[in-house]
What we know:
Helices cover about 35% and strands about 30% of the residues of chain A.
Amino acid sequence: MEIAIETHNLKKYFDEIHAVDGIDLQIPKGSLFGVLGPNGAGKTTIIRMLSTILHPTDGTATVLGFDIKKEALEIKKRIGVCPQELVLYPRLTARENIHLIAQMHGMAKKDYKERTDDLLGKMNLLDRANSLVKGFSGGMKRRVNVLMAVIHEPELLFFDEPTAGLDPQSRRVVWDFIRDFQERECTIILTTHNMEEADDLSDELVIIDHGKIISQGTPDELKGKLGEGDILEFKIKEIEQRNEIIERAKSLEFVRWGKPVGKHRIVLNALDGLRRVSEIMEVIKVKMEDISVRKNTLEDVFIDITGRRLRD
Amino acid sequence: MEKKMRPKIIQQLRYLTIKNFKSMIREVSQLVWIFGYPLVFILLFRFGYGLEVFNIFAPGVIILAPIVLISQLAGHFAEEKESGTLQRLVTTPVSRSTVLLSGLFSQLIVAAVQIVVMLLLTLLFGVSINPNANIFLLFFIPFLVAFTSLGFGLILASVVRTASSAGGLAWFIILPLQFLGGLLTAPLLDFIPTALAAEAMGAVMIYGSTAFDPIGLNLILIAIWGIGLILLGILLFRRKTAIL
Ligand SMILES: Nc1ncnc2c1ncn2[C@@H]1O[C@H](COP(=O)(O)OP(=O)(O)OP(=O)(O)O)[C@@H](O)[C@H]1O
Ligand SMILES: [Mg+2]
């Protein structure tokens, strides 16, 4: 297995904030590697270090075999970065913004012109290609933001929350677009706090919190750790009694675990939970405001480890 | 792994400069300012106070042109810093210095155009120029002042957070340079670049002089100002946008 990215004890401290706190990664070439974590977990900071625009406080990392400190230029020639914020020149057109990145990489004019139009077409932007970006909607800007990362056919792509703020339809377009690169053996690092996105796209992923890896594996492995059960989520009024309620539920032998989440919710993992909702309700004897039953998701993995939701 | 060639710096510089130009030309309000502000004074002196006064103040008004550029340059670099585009660019194989250079380069081209336009306008409005006046110096003196503007603009862009505050704060540099340098009045501080330039410009335009003092000497002093300010500006800007 060839390695695209390797980090040892990678750290970034901003004064007393430990944004990234000792990360060890081995990312195989050609894989789509997800980095899932809540706001402030350190996802962007990791990407900024690996794309050589931020120096680590401690630790080492190589990207495509090059050291991030000593061989930054070699890395820059081979990567594409889609930043979390919309970083575009507002008074350039969509086409000009994309061309600029290709020009910085020294691509031949004929190649980047053709490719730009091809990419704009895939993102349904061809009819606005010559409009100034400042007049674009947020979703259109986001799609240009993505295209600027890929125009030069990089070997390695960093996507930092590429679908934040997109409607479901545009999100699908971007997902399909990313899958396209996956098929072309490009290595992709994708950060997100959208568990569906992480689950659908990643070959392998890490969940990070407070700058540390708290779990790692394929989406199925991670969900498998929670067992076969279904997830039942209750919204309740009696918040003071949450722990007793969970204990009562756990007295049922098919309830595998339970956790309080946020202020008003309880999450239970129960085998065959869907059919047994009424049994559980009988035992825990509280007024529910709301109840939902679902399959294990990556969010539940996060809840299981931290007792928090990804987005609170 | 095989080493990839570094893209040619000259090409990068060219494309970045074109990019800067497009961005500038499409920001109409800035263009109105940098051409409009000196033009207002040309019109005021020529048609408000009459030709006699115009003849005396035309040299100073032309020096005013490259000074107004401080607001545009500071705005340009502050925008590049604020919006994250500089960060985005340096994830590609282009160096911070090339990006910086392209910004300075584009402004110098704007300055050259602006100076020529202002010179032609003063001529068009009938200013009397000494027949022995050296045409090259008439262009070169304000052009040298443009370098000090680059320095002031960069320093300002380094210390402010946003492009809009850079554009506004620039006037706290432009107006003192204008008034203390005596571009439209009598100079109060005769060692500042605007005062030096106005004196030299007047000597060339009105008296047709080519004497070392004031012209050569003042040019050297302005150049020292320019080099000092630009170096300080580059240092500050690089530090403020450095990789942490
Ligand atoms: N330049 C900086 N100076 C100071 N603190 C910073 C800086 N950049 C990031 N941080 C801090 O580091 C932590 C991690 O930030 P980071 O942007 O990496 O999180 P993230 O996982 O990308 O979050 P989000 O999902 O909100 O994008 C945060 O607490 C943030 O405040
Ligand atoms: Mg982030």
